[in-house]
Amino acid sequence: MNIIFLGPPGAGKGTQAERLSKDLNVPQISTGDIFRAALSQGTELGLEAKKYMDAGELVPDELVVRIVEERLRENDCKGGFILDGFPRSTFQAEALDRFLIEEGSGIDIVLNIDMDSEELVKRLTGRRVCRECGANYNIHYSLPETGGECDQCGGELYQRDDDNEKTIRNRLKVYGQQTEPLIDYYSGTGKMVTVDGSKKPGEVYDVIRGAVNSLGA
Ligand code: AP5
Ligand code: MG
User: Fold this and answer.
1) Looking at the annotation, which residues are catalytic?
2) With DSSP H G I counted as helix, E B as strand and the rest as coil, what are the percentages for the chain, rounded to 5?
3) Which CATH class is domain 2-116+179-213?
């Protein structure tokens, strides 16, 4: 099954995509995670992406499309994939459509997570991420049981560079200008399901799982 997660920064795309990826046994492809991994390895791609990420702007379309197409050609995507944070512009959505047509495939479902902006700012300023395993916590909603370390691996928790209020507000603005138009783009396909992201993570997941189950997964 080929799945897209759409939604503003902080809506819970990563949280939900990770769980669905484990349940369906298909890879989660997060463009943000790809750029952050490249940066931590000090590659040219990572350094290039950082300029845009730190400002809350989108990384240029051609670069993102190339990275995603390379990733989708890998073998583990043959049985399906979950895109988390891609596409994020009409250019990217059209490029993805063309790529999938050439591959003789297509998108099965677009899960659009809907959320109010002020709640998103609170969630994102409160997010903490494990430096070792990437697990997500939140000082407002889901603190680690140990206090300051990751429950899963004991790793150090840090705050993403783009999770400060100024950058978050720009990310939300950029979302409104460049990504939100994709809601119209995909609602026209009849494959989009909108989910209320303000509920608890487990409740959001139940709705998502129900929508995916109804397609026979
Ligand atoms: P990316 O890494 O994709 O960040 P984002 O879209 O801004 O979204 P987030 O990862 O911040 O939020 P999320 O929706 O995944 O929510 P999460 O589950 O983490 O992109 C970063 C940057 O990379 C972009 O700004 C851009 O520069 C670049 N980039 C990436 N993709 C690109 C592309 N395609 N084109 C161009 N540039 C690109 O949850 C957030 C927090 O809330 C966590 O703390 C979590 O624990 C908590 N939480 C989640 N769900 C709930 C809930 N239901 N209730 C309470 N708390 C919750
Ligand atoms: Mg994410």
Assistant:
1) 13, 88, 127, 160, 171
2) 50, 15, 35
3) alpha beta
